[in-house]
Amino acid sequence: GVWISAKKQLPYHIVWRFEWPDAIKNELISDSNKSGSISINDLEMAGLLLTWLVLEETSPINLKHPTIRIFCDNQSTVNWTTKQSTSTSTVAGHLLRALGFRQHLHRTAPLLIAHIKGKENNMADVASRSFADYKILKSDLKIIIS
Fold it and tell me: Per-residue DSSP letters for 23-71?
């Protein structure tokens, strides 16, 4: 994921990455694993929750009351987060509850989420695809851009 402040409230930009543990990868529904219990949309929702947690941990500003916008290339995640509910995924429902709890805890304004086409989501894609690059995979990479 990538955090960029549009209003200079964050004094730096944040690029972060997280590789799903094997236990989660093994439950991903795919052509070769039709009996999995986690959809790609569920993983995208989990990624959005992780993005929020990164902001909580790294933000030098008080999260009480500011409006925060997140761009996401997964339409299901955008819809679920906008509605703050889902009728199609129990996993996403639990993740939405966790996101809502975290926002309530910090008393933030409702999260604004907007869809961004996947091909326009280059910065986040570089972070997520960096696991295929052996040099980056084996490094203890922490990126903070001033």
Answer: HHHTTB-BTTBTT-SB-HHHHHHHHHHHHHHHHHHH-SS--SS---EEE
By C-alpha distance, which of 68, 18, 11 is closest to 43? 18
* Number of neighbours of residue 77 by Cβ within 10 angstroms: 26
Q: How many CB atoms lie within 10 A of CB 116?
A: 15
DSSP per-residue codes, 72-84: ES-HHHHHHHHHT
Q: Which residues of 46-75 are buried (b: 16+ CB within 10 A; e: fewer)?
A: bbbbebbebbeeebeeebeeeebebbbbbe
Question: What are 31-40's pLDDT values in tens digits?
Answer: 999 999 999 9
| Residue written as token pair 């730096």 | 12
How large is the angle between the packed helices 40-58 and 90-106, nearest 10 degrees?
A: 10
Question: What's this model's pTM, rounded to 2 decimal places?
Answer: 0.79
Bridge-partner residues for 115, per DSSP?
72
